[in-house]
Amino acid sequence: QIKEYMAIRNDVTDIVMLKREIFTKEQEKVEQEKIKEAQKSFLLVFTHELKTPLNAIINFSKYIKKALQDPTKAPTQKLINLLDSVLGNATDMLNNIMTILEISKLNAQKLHYDYSMFNASALIEEILKKYDSLIEANSIQVSLKSDTELFINSDMHRVEQIVSNILSNAIKYGDNQIVIILEEQESRTVIAVEDNGPGIKDKEGVFELYAQEDENLIQRKGKGTGIGLYFIKLLCNDLGIQYQLKDRIPQPGTRFELIFDNRRNNGKGNDA
To answer: How far is it, in rounded angstroms, from Cα 223 to Cα 4?
Structure first.
């Protein structure tokens, strides 16, 4: 038979709230450190990528200026090649800067889209024209395979940006062969770009910002900033385009697929 209860009580509300506040601040601190590290990495990578073409532009321009002071001794073909290199480096710099600006708009959800029905083969042919000189300079054999005319309903300009980035990577990291395949699979249209390069091990990680295969962030041997595939991922997600990175079979290399669902209006972004 219980005769009495004895209890000691303490109001722990303040302590619990304080612990929660401390935990929240610690989490915020961790997030801020991650942001700072990402910003630092971005600055290091991007300045490195700007420094290389800028040095080429400055040094080649100095040589060209000096050579033109005596036109009779100026090796014309060499000057033309150097000017081509200056133009190429300047174009790469501009493309990198424009991509960073586009990524900022995407992350801020301020990128608008203009949807239309367009011919996939015609778009690929236009993109290939822009890369003619680069393909020729690297002695790459490019073939386009398409059984029939295929049409895609999406933002043509953005799809062009996506395919251009994929083709650029195939030129940089492939060997001497690129195959572009257009095919219809039931209610889907597929654009596939295959190269015969060494392939990619981490097929998910390469889509993260500044990620590169088996290489340190700064002291790397790659030929790009790592922003291209990240840009592709953001655009595809916004436009409702599926993307897949596979091993090329049976030959060695990489196969990049873009999959458009013909049953729906591709895209979940804002219409212009």
So the answer is: 80
Give the count of beta carbons closer than 10 Å to the beta carbon of residue 177.
16
Relative to beta strand 112-113, strand 270-271 is: parallel
- Which whole-number Å values give the CA distances from 76 to 72, 79, 90, 100, 259, in the listed order? 10, 5, 21, 36, 47
pLDDT tens for each residue of 75-113: 888 888 888 888 877 887 887 788 778 877 877 777 889
Angle between helices 76-107 and 13-68 in degrees, nearest 10: 160
Q: Residue 174's pLDDT is what? A: 84
Q: What is the pLDDT of residue 49?
A: 65
Q: How many helices (H) and strands (E) does the chain have?
A: 6, 9
Residue 247 phi, psi (nearest 5): -80, 140
Q: Strands 242-247 and 254-261: what pairing?
A: antiparallel
**What one-character DSSP code corresponds to residue 203?**
T
How large is the average pLDDT for residues 23-30? 90
Give the separation between CA 59 and CA 86, rounded to whole angstroms.
Answer: 9
